[in-house]
Amino acid sequence: MPDTDDQSSVEVDQSHAFRPPPWWQRLPMGPAPLMVLLVAVLSYLLLLLMPPERVEADLVLWTFSPDHHNSYQRALPAFQARHPEIRVASLLVHDSAINQRLSSAFWAGVNVPDLVEVEISHVGPFFRGPVDQIGFIDLRSRLEAAGMLDRIPANRLAPYSHRGRIFGIPHDVHPVMFAYRADLLDPLLEQAGIGIEDLDTWEAYIQFARDYVRPTGRFMLQMEDGAGYGFEPYLYQAGGGYFNSDGEVIIDQDIVVETLLWWLPLVAGPDAICINYGSWGLPFFRGLEEGNYLMVIAPDWRTGSIERNLPQLSGRMRLMPLPAFTPGGRRTSSWGGTMLGITRATPDPDLAFELAMHLYADLDMLEETFRSTNILPADRRAWERPAFAEARDYWQGQAIGLEYAALADDIPIQVGHPYLGLAKDKLGEVVVASVARYRRRGPEGMEDFIRQRLSSAADYVRLQLRRVPDWEAEP
What we know:
By secondary structure, the chain is of the alpha/beta class. Helix content is 46%, strand content 11%. It folds into two domains: 59-173 and 336-408, Periplasmic binding protein-like II (D-Maltodextrin-Binding Protein, domain 2); 176-334 and 413-466, D-Maltodextrin-Binding Protein, domain 2.
């Protein structure tokens, strides 16, 4: 028990506690909106008084990827040699910071870069508002004149297009395959009397995993089940998505319900063939190294990460296309991506586009970048270069460039939308809730639960869309 002096001390401290003035309590929506306004004003003043890093350059490019930045550092001298009168700078900016800084820069008109790379899941908010107020210029006519529209897989332009305009050039394609421990899986395939080519449908794949892999104590596949992005590649593969080409919300359609009902028993319940060690970092790589799971989902960029983090698995890994939902069906999906946009603030859009083509369409550079990252570029001309046909010892002699290129034109379409991020968040909430419920109660009542949750999620996104003016309507 505190003594009397301690108690009085506490009382004195409490008597001096902050008490809001009476007008504060009379605000119709409480103090929260006022606090948001104050934070916004302070942020704007801070941006004006302490702007982001300034560089002495005529063309400034922001990128969030260290691999891209390193490639551009090697490529820029050749561009500078053609234009000795200008200075070009590539700045490495963190992914989360690039979105905040770019939004603030567009809004305030302060220190806007000439070109900027944006990750595929973050581009949507930049497409909001009237077209003439979007911070990026429409590149369709320039891409068409450069012949790029014929060289980029058509589906890869969709995420960076909105209302008939193309606001970004795709840096990559990112087809998805499975990377697997051939040294552990091949003996099980031999035991089953089949080859890897026989796992060409999900039905055959799942049955093999339950009959031959799970009895060994291992899991067939690492699968993220604590976030929506783990489910997303399979939803896209099945033909689902977030918005259709007319901009309508489709996360409550039957294809989403059916795909989620198919996916849940793979990650939860007594017959699960997947386990989640996390999709990044040491636990992910250790699980693959120790053989706790035999396969991981592998967009092209992940193969480079596996090579760098697990050099000890060289010669023990291989790649296979995804199983198809139906015989002869799509055997790939897509995960991740980057666009390069040119901002309205650039004083010389033609020069900025020339730099974009130097970085994204110079075949020598694309070949060099592929050798160091395994990322399949969006310009299909590069796929004919020798690097893409090179046999890789790490992957037991597979020419992984040709393997990924063969799938590039079959990647599913991902429709871009200003509210794509919101739709992904809401679907992700349903995925996480469904996994938790399936673990507790199994399949009973699962379809009704999913339909109700998806309907609520879709209605929430539609409500936000109804609040957005029709910028294309006639005045």
